[in-house]
Write a structure and sequence with these properties.
Blueprint: H1 9-32, H2 41-45, H3 50-65, H4 68-80, H5 85-102, H6 105-108, H7 112-120, H8 124-127, H9 134-144, H10 158-161, E1 166-168, H11 175-194, H12 201-212, E2 213-217, H13 220-231, E3 243-246, E4 249-250, E5 255-256, E6 266-268, E7 271-272, E8 281-283, E9 289-294, E10 300-305, H14 324-340, H15 351-360, E11 365-376, H16 378-381, H17 386-395, E12 396-404, E13 420-427, E14 438-444, H18 451-463, E15 467-468, E16 475-479, E17 482-491, H19 492-495, H20 508-520, E18 522-523, E19 526-527, E20 530-532, E21 537-539, H21 543-549, E22 550-552, E23 560-562, E24 574-575, E25 579-583, H22 596-600, E26 604-609, E27 611-613, E28 621-630, E29 633-638, H23 644-654, H24 657-665, E30 668-671, E31 674-676, H25 679-684, E32 686-688, H26 695-708, H27 723-736, H28 742-749, H29 752-755
Parallel strand pairs: 1-2, 1-10, 2-3, 10-11, 12-14, 15-17, 23-28, 24-28
Antiparallel strand pairs: 3-7, 4-5, 6-9, 8-9, 11-13, 12-13, 14-17, 16-17, 18-19, 20-32, 21-29, 22-25, 23-25, 26-28, 26-29, 27-31, 30-31
Length: 758
């Protein structure tokens, strides 16, 4: 089934309504197998009209048995439908569809309905809701709830386990909560077996659903599916209540859903699946009664989330599902809330950064509790995510990082191709000493495709002692002859002080080389004189500013440009201007006006790629014959003692293997091989310190640039067979007295993000 594009909200609502009815039918059939008072679908089909029969029977289940969260919304939907032949036909088809689903019992235990829901949801981009794959959720929660990480919990005792509190503040269809329940059940079964006890599964499951797991979302349909997801694990168990809440979004008050937990442990609640909200009630200033839901006393032991990701750039899609008038008010309220609460979050990174700050509040997560998160991979190195990294560095021990390097499966959510990462972090208490704490880093070359594979990886991780990153060995993650990737461990103190670029490469050895270059200024055990790029070059305006001051000219002007990056045409390091710019006289619609002369004053001859597709790109930096501006290139002008020869040496370095490793370590990875290079990251990137090199050495590098600048480079994916790049590396190695770089270049060429082969 293809993923739908954004359509009429009415169509999206009809799709979700249909799924809700089918979901209730599936649950009814499952329930009929353990409760004789519940009719089978086959028996129900014999009754006519079908709409009336369903309403009557679901009302009976609600009154006499329970399962209000599952059937009440279904009844309301059926009551909204007219008594008509086409409705009867549609309901008959829904019954047949439910029977087909029921034929695949295994799928029901792994949130099948959630997967369908997110395929049907046409507004995913604007809601920022992405569905966590079941294997990813399984792996993440197995790591977060590993028994050895919770020594004070008697897993064999349902009463002791019931003291845990686990939340998803953006629960969607409940995949992460379901994975948490299954991880706890696994712990209970294993520990009970170890002590010769019989597992108490029904009692445990009731306690997990009624007391342990808490979910919040802004979509009623999502909360409904969460309830059915966790209830389907044991349909024979009758639950008196569930801690699942609908929170309002938008409206006259500009409600922000779970984000409002930033300011305190109680927020206005929009709905509760078991009738009236049982929590706190207070009187608003105008005399109206407002019902609130409060977090459990002391906060949660685990907060797990795949939070909304939408960013505040590119048209500002924050709260993009709401009308424009509401959205602006909500954005203003969010900015004020972040400011007054002094939250470590940046909305440029998106709502994901905000949700992490919400999870960190003292009333949300206990000291010693854990975050188990699915986040965009840009969180590891992105400038906009610096506040979130700082939050984790100051208050947490990062226990696990999982990155997928499998081509085409960079993600851990099923309805996106965006690169993602799994994180488990433990919140420190006032008495914690994390001096010896270590982070386990997992670079997967193969992303698990099912629960069995995810469980195998989790088991292998538990049984494997990873090699020290600061040492020399490589530990490959294996299960039953299948290799999943490489893992290593390193002291948390070594990681937390800067961007977490150790997911840049699938191979441990390449990550070590990048680490040595960035932190120790060494390459293959030899010193390399490097400094941050901003000491050598000043980066010019970005493409947005250029467009605010110029239009693309149709005839020559005194403002030459190097426009676009067609890898079929950009084949050499020597660039020639290929376009001209015409200065604007007035601002473009909806944009500020930029002074063309000020922009032109920041033009330069050195150009560094602003974005690349690594599989096809040949050149990452070049030098033009004249100063230019660009739309997908950063123009760079010299600073200090950087002259013509120094510029040429820097361009040669950037296209060498050490230069490429540093550049790729500082990339912002959007979707696998499609990457960007943000200005602040580039400015802090180590680059060859040509100011410290002897003039003869600079001259040697500049001469090599002149002799090679017009020779064609192969695509990066063919760098191991590229004679020109080999000559660049030989020149750099000779000038800097480094060992030969051929083996490193060959290793880099085999990186999955470059060659698309795991």
């Amino acid at each position: 089934m293809p993923t739908p594009t954004r359509t009429d909200p009415k169509k999206a609502a009809l799709r979700v309504a249909g799924l809700t009815i089918i979901n209730a039918l599936v649950f009814q059939e499952q329930l009929s197998r353990t409760n004789r008072r519940v009719q089978t679908l086959a028996r129900l089909r014999s009754r006519s009209p079908l709409r009336t029969a369903l309403i009557d029977h679901w009302d009976f289940i609600i009154r006499e048995i329970d399962y209000v969260p599952i059937f009440e919304l279904g009844v309301k939907l059926l009551q909204a439908l007219p008594s008509a032949p086409h409705v009867e036909q549609a309901l008959d088809q829904a019954l047949r569809t439910a029977e087909k689903v029921l034929a695949r019992q295994a799928a029901l235990r792994h949130d099948l309905m959630g997967r369908v829901y997110h395929r049907l949801l046409a507004e995913a981009k604007y809601l920022g809701t992405y569905y966590t794959s079941v294997p990813a959720a399984t792996l993440l929660l197995k790591l977060a709830l590993a028994p050895e990480a919770w020594p004070r919990v008697n897993w064999e005792s349902p009463e002791d386990v019931a003291r845990l509190r686990i939340a998803d503040l953006a629960c969607g269809t409940g995949t992460l909560l379901m994975a948490a329940i299954q991880a706890i059940i696994d712990n209970h079964v294993l520990k009970s077996a170890d002590k010769g006890l019989s597992p108490q599964l029904s009692d445990l499951h009731r306690k997990l659903v009624e007391q342990v797991v808490w979910g919040y979302d802004v979509l009623l349909s999502a909360v409904h599916l969460t309830a059915s997801t966790i209830a389907l694990l044991s349909p024979e168990v009758v639950f008196q209540h569930m801690c699942l809440y609908l929170l309002p979004l938008g409206g006259p008050q500009g409600r922000l859903g779970s984000i409002e937990f930033l300011q305190g442990p109680c927020v206005t609640v929009g709905g509760y699946l078991f009738g009236p909200v049982p929590e706190a009630v207070h009187v608003a200033p105008k005399g109206s009664v407002v019902r609130s839901v409060c977090l459990p006393d002391g906060g949660f032991d685990v907060v797990t989330m795949n939070p909304p990701f939408t960013r505040s750039v590119g048209g500002n899609l924050l709260f993009g599902s709401r009308p424009a008038s509401e959205r602006k008010a909500m954005q203003r309220k969010l900015s004020k809330l972040l400011r007054t609460c002094r939250a470590k979050a940046n909305t440029t990174a998106g709502l994901g950064s905000v949700f992490v700050a919400v999870a960190d509040r003292p009333w949300t997560l206990k000291p010693g509790g854990r975050l188990a998160l699915v986040l965009p991979k840009t969180m590891l190195t992105g400038v906009a995510w610096a506040a979130t990294r700082q939050l984790l560095a100051e208050s947490y021990t990062l226990e696990y990082v999982v990155v997928s390097h499998e081509p085409g499966r960079w993600n851990f959510s099923e309805n996106t191709n965006l690169s993602e990462v799994l994180l488990v972090a433990r919140k420190k208490s006032a008495t914690d000493d994390d001096a010896g704490a270590e982070t386990c880093w997992i670079n997967l070359s193969r992303n698990p495709r099912n629960v069995t594979e995810a469980l195998a990886i989790a088991h292998s991780l538990k049984a494997t002692r990873p090699a020290s990153f600061l040492g020399a060995g490589v530990t490959r993650l294996k299960t039953n002859g299948q290799e999943w990737g490489e893992i290593f461990r390193l002291p948390w103190r070594e990681l937390r002080s800067g961007p977490w670029f150790l997911g840049a490469f699938a191979r441990t050895d390449l990550n070590r080389i990048a680490f040595d270059l960035i932190r120790r200024h060494r390459m293959l055990s030899k010193p390399v004189p490097v400094t941050v790029l901003r000491d050598m070059l000043e980066l010019g305006p970005d493409r947005r500013d250029v467009h605010d001051g110029f239009t693309l000219g149709k005839s020559p002007t005194r403002y030459p440009a190097f426009w676009d990056h067609d890898s079929a045409k950009v084949r050499t390091m020597g660039f020639t201007p290929n376009a001209y710019l015409a200065p604007r006289e007035t601002a473009a619609h909806g944009r500020p006006f930029r002074d063309p002369e000020l922009l032109w004053g920041r033009s330069g001859r050195v150009l560094i790629a602003e974005r690349l597709r690594l599989t096809t790109a040949r050149v990452v930096a070049g030098r033009t014959t004249r100063p230019v501006l660009g739309n997908v290139w950063w123009p760079c002008s010299p600073k200090g003692k950087t002259g013509v020869a120094e510029e040429k040496a820097i361009v040669l370095w950037l296209n060498s293997t050490p230069g490429l490793i540093l550049l790729l370590a500082h990339r912002t990875e959007t979707e696998g091989a499609w990457v960007e290079f943000k200005k602040p990251s580039l400015e802090e990137m180590p680059v060859l310190n040509v100011a410290e090199l002897p003039k003869s050495c600079v001259g040697q590098l500049a001469e090599a640039f002149d002799s090679l600048k017009d020779r064609e480079l192969r695509p990066l994916s063919e760098m191991d067979r590229d004679q020109v790049r080999a000559e660049i590396d030989r020149t750099v190695a000779k000038a800097l007295k480094l060992p030969q770089l051929d083996e490193v270049r060959e290793l880099l060429a085999r990186e999955p993000v470059i060659c698309l082969t795991a």
